[in-house]
Queue: 2 jobs
Job 1
Amino acid sequence: MAAQVIKPVRKLDERHLARQRWARAAWIYGAMLALAVFFIGPFYVAYLGSLKDNPLEWPFRYSFAQTQPKNWAAAWRLGQLGAGNPWTGGFAPGARIPFQVSYFVEEGQEPQTPMVTVPTRRAGAGLGAIFDEVQAAQYARVSEVQEVGRRSALVGGQPGQIVTYGFTITYEGQGPKAARLPLDIEAPRGQMYHSATLDPNRLERRGRVASWDSAAPGFLGYTFRNYVRVFNEARDPNTGASFFLRWTLNTFLVSLAVVLTTLLFASLAGYALARMYFPGKNYLFAFVVFTMTVPAQAIFISNYLVLRDLGLLGSLWGMVVWSAVGAGAVFIMKQFFESIPREIEEAALIDGASPITTFFRIIIPMATPALGALTILTFQGMWNEFFKAAVVLSGQQTNYTLPLGLSFFRSAYGVAGDWGLMLASAFLSMIPIIILFVVFQRYFVEGVSTSALKG
Amino acid sequence: MLRSQRTEALYALLFLAPFLVHLGVFFVFAFVRTLGFSFTDKTLIGQSYQIVGFANFVQLFQDPRFIAALTHSISFMLIVTLLQTFLALSMAAILNQRLRGITFFRTVYYIPSVLSSAAVTVIAIWFFQKTGFLNTFVGWIGSLAPVLLTFLVIFALAQALQVGWERMRGLPVALTDPALATISLAVGLALTWLLVALGAVVPREAQPPEFTWLTNSDRFLGVPIPLWSIIMLNTFTTIPTLMLIFLAGLQDIPKSIYEAAAIDGASPLQQFFSVTVPMLRPVTFLVITLSLIGTLQMFDQVALMGDAAPLDSIIVLAYYVYNNVFSGEGRVGLASAAAIILAALTFAIVLLQRALGISEKAH
């Protein structure tokens, strides 16, 4: 036998293996973190966008006026000075608002005093514009603009000086409170805006005109400007009531009503399918499973006509009746009832209790975990339901639910490109579901993986 | 039948009554009526109507918009299902570890799929605008390309050198050895940083974005670009759900099979393809079926896009049906015929699944 030269192969020793284990864990955590950024990142940047004055600005900035603590503090203080309200600000009798603005003037140029005006400006582009609101311009008096100081500085490599001007806006006499105090400051040619008590919402004409939506905005009115606008600007043209609040209430009512009907009807039907004997039970169950696969869009036409005949179109009741009980809910309850032991109810039945008494006295109390999960899943499903709302509620704006309301905002504000308001309304509509998810996440995650697997 | 049995059947009927009435009116009656309407020329406003036989179906296949909707629906269904299944399975395989804090991450990943499709679509339309974040991000990657490429080359070189060295010393390390890769990562980051600081590698100047996603009339692989945007959106929001189903399936595979495979010398990749994939077959079938049926129902995203994208580039069957009922005179007959085709597609998928012999309860 010829002697073979075998290359010595050492085994990895314990030290190497431990090192590998640690490194592998580190790579997996890194991958999980990257995935988390992938799934949450888009929402984070959209949230940043919703705070901006122009969410479509390019290049994209992660740090801007609304994220700077300096502006938070200034907005808070100005809101307090304007109307004694540090949160949403305003302009009320007795207000006295000192304001400073600084300009950069290149060397060799003589600084000139800028022009300060409180313009008459309607709110927003879409629905808000049709309302007559109290205009601060009628009551505001701007004091003479005076130079406060100047210092030499280098800006962008250019030598020159920064000149600071100060003025005061006062509310003269008595009158109604104005929601906003719009402000425009126009500087002469050659002077560049540098800084101010509160950073402006817009710079126009190459930085010569600085424009504020409100010089007394309050913390929320400045930082969450678009969110406040969602409530203030979108109003019913007839009653003046806030659309968004109404839609939130509608969505709550519909979701709650459907949760109640689903809990009752689905547990009754699920119990009958799980425990009671009747001819054709298996065929019925197979049919129920089959109906779950048919798209609602394939059969809605008749449902629309039925609801029309019942006079339920445009009404929240139409949504409730159409969604009262779903095959999926019956399926979940059937699975649950099959998993609990028979002995308890049999004892009750032998004692002579009727199936109805047994069901409500003994079965329902035992089913709390399943009913809890069903509540969460149904509530979430109805809160997000778009198709049925689009069929039943179309045209009745006061009866919209939030998803349909968002689509209404999209067409009302999309033309003007008012993305701040659209993004803000999208985030506001998510809040209840996010809270629900954080509190009951176990139900969400387990509900999906178990019910789907068994289905 | 015994008397007691008859009583029980009566009680069962009583318990089932609300559900059966609802199912009867809103499913059985609805389906039969839709089928009936599809052979008539009924409109939403008109009072009387006539039976027209198969005229609606003939008319559908002569309508370019219906052909567009049908092809869009089918390509959307196939592409999304393929992407979702592949990505969800890969993610589940990564996440199937017994590590601290893994439940936290699972919860985080699940967030996009509990949010309402309306809100997510509004955000997505912003994302897909010309100066929206997607183009910003793509532009950022483009301008950083020289730096990223430098890093990748250094990383690969460092890893190759280390693995070569260890093998020369007789240690059987894999090319992807995680411990060595950590060192390569540190070397790569440090050297790239140095090269950028020295000015040897310079990121390119970012250019203002030119590409439009939603108002683009171009096609990619025969599918309009705006529809690709919805494909990306839908894949993004449904991956987490499917991933959780895969995870539940993965955790039911006995550990002993992997141990046996490891003893036989199977590498992690071999284990994945010869143990995980076959053991997961029933779950994969379930995921694919759910995905096929779910994607056929896609409606919300198209409806919310509204005028953000041209309708003919994003229309799908579900929206075609809705649009025909609620626009103009409301052509219920024609819409019903389209609805029947949508339902038939769904039945075909369910039947195909049955025919392939893997029932839903195989797991």
Job 2
Amino acid sequence: MELTTVWFVLIAVLWTGYFCLEGFDFGVGMLFPVLGRSEERRRVLLNTIGPVWDGNEVWLLTAGGATFAAFPHWYATLFSGFYLPLLLILLALIVRALGFEYRHKRNDDQWRRRWDAAIVVGSAVPAFLWGVAFTNIVRGVPIDADKEFTGSLLTLLNPIALLGGLATLTVFLLHGLLFVALKTDGEIRSDARALATRVGWVAAGLGVALLVILGSDRGGAASLTTSVLAAGALLAALASNARGREGWAFTGTFIGIALVVASLFLMLFPDVMPSSTNAAWSLTVDNAASSAKTLGIMTWVGVLFLPIVLLYQGFTYWTFRKRISTHHIPPATDERDWAPSGAGLR
Amino acid sequence: MELDLARWQFAITTVYHFLFVPVTIGLSAFVAGFHTAYLRSRNPAHLRLSKFLGKLFTINFALGLVTGIVQEFQFGMNWSDYSRFVGDIFGAPLAIEALLAFFLESTFLGLWIFGWGRIPEKLHVASIWIVHIGTLLSAYFILAANSFMQHPVGYRLNPQTGRAELTDFVAVLTNKVQLVTFPHTAFAAYLAGAALVLGVCMWHLHQRRVEDDLPMYRTGARIGAIVLLIAGAGVAISGDQQGKVMTEVQPVKMAAAEALYDTQKSAPFSIVTVSSLDGQQEKVAITVPKLLSFLGTGDFNGTIHGINDLERAYQQKYESDPLTRAQTYTPTLPLTYWSFRLMIGIGMSSMLVAVLALWTLRRGSSAPARARWWPWAAVGVTLMPVLGNAFGWIFTETGRQPWLVFGLFTTKSGVSPGVSAAEVATSLIAFTALYAVLAVIEVRLTLRYARAGAEPLKKPDESTADSDDDRLQFAY
């Protein structure tokens, strides 16, 4: 296999890791107002992802950095072209992450309510916009002979891309629900399962619709196979959830999302950003790539270190594998509980 | 217009990001150090200090983390032509940084924060050390990328594509600029971490609110002061070496640091200047004779090239190629001149506070930090290295102008051609406004926890007293 193909696959793997992992973080964040009806339940939700969300997000940073290293033109065209949606994603990721990390630092209802809003909005916006972005990438956007994006924000907000956004939003919501069902106990667990049944059909429907629309345009035998398998995995997830098999259900959406990402990248290949202006101006794995030297070095780095990352990241999931329920949650504290009062000993 | 906005955005987001980074690197070593000390000594004070500093660390880390996400993407957003030109070389360290450092930091910090009572103690301590190693790895790779911009090595220009291509990755990672910049930055980070530990502990020693806690803060302050002095010495020595490498590879930056117009042997260094720096009139300044020559060459009689000569030479060399053509090859002088002095002056003043602290903490002094000015000194010493770090980067990056990659690619050629000024202005306003709000939140939160001091340890019987208690020892 050529190095450019290897790196196309590796970048697909990084995005797959990102969406499979942070996908359920987005879901959990969006579920705060729905499943988190009491403060203790919101804290249960937060603590299911507390130790792992940051590691999940690093998949995005690695995907971004790897795209920069392996396909500089892809990195340059994509992020300068999709400027405003990317800006919104970045702002959302900032406030959401601080919501996770700062919410518990003060025992104050107003403080928590504000960070809850940051978490909900900060999860929903990227969950939607990543779908918009990837639908546009696969379908093609106006790109000129100099590899520059020539469209506008409105070009990106076309109806099919909006459908793509709804598809990722609902699939991540389902993924989050199944994660909560797997990682919690008590009322919140049964609520998550019941809601997953209702959300599930919408999510699977939208996901399949998106794959059909994109596939009819750019699909081939390989992407058709993965698309069918993706649909199968999502349906198997719903069936498992209905029968109370939470582990299988979560595995189903996990594999389903991975197969959706695989389908999108198979539809793209060998382009990385097709041009809707002129097919000859499309960015491809060849004309967007770095030199063979860089790709070679980065291949060694990736092949050596990605498995190690998977090992220790897997270890944290194993360490924090226990289900959490409201009675595990210690009372809220903050620094006022131990701050000495008074003027001191002077 | 777009160029200016893009530069302002990069300056604001990057300087802001780097307010949190040095503290994070330095402080993680103290958190790890005190946690390790507890493992060996079983002295509760060590555990309390580790947890206390750990809280300040996580508050800072969070903001460094979120502002770091922007860094990963803004090259593509605002500097797409730069990304195309240099992605081959510059992208690799960025990707390696994420793969090697960010995964380590994020995963093991999660283990440390949530690990109380859930993972074996030794693994728990190892986790925070791994976080610290992650922060250093991150610094190494991002500085390697930056060093390429100061002094490009290990590449060739591909005439067909007009892009820089990697020829020698080891050369990029062992760039001579990198080999002096990494120690300088790492020492400066330890300086910042140590100053925070010193400042917070001295403040509590002055306040004397809990008699039993005073020995603990005394330990913290003394270790903070000692590390600060060692790190300060490291900053000075590595900075001196850096000056010599800079004089060699970017002579105009050294000239701009002093606003030296005419090539001179035995060039003096001015501590402060009251006159203008435009070279039209004699400088009115307090100067140290021959010091600039020594800083730049290691020889008090060495030659330092002046701006006028260098400008002429650069014009001759670079004006023919559109990628290297610029109006002037001299950076903005007041900026380089003053940021250089503020870096040294403010950064090094913290060492003075450390010496005063060690004096008042000396054996036999039963009531240290009695003077009324100690709370001010405590706050000041915490801020000084942070500002010194910021001015250091402002000097290094503005001193590189008009270049993005020195001698190879100008800043104006790097900006995104497809992005409008309105779009850059939108993101500039959005980031600036959000960052301002977050700064207020972060500082207030840090002050709350810093003032509250170290949390007393829960007595073991308290946690077992509750029957059927399967509560988590720690949760968000």
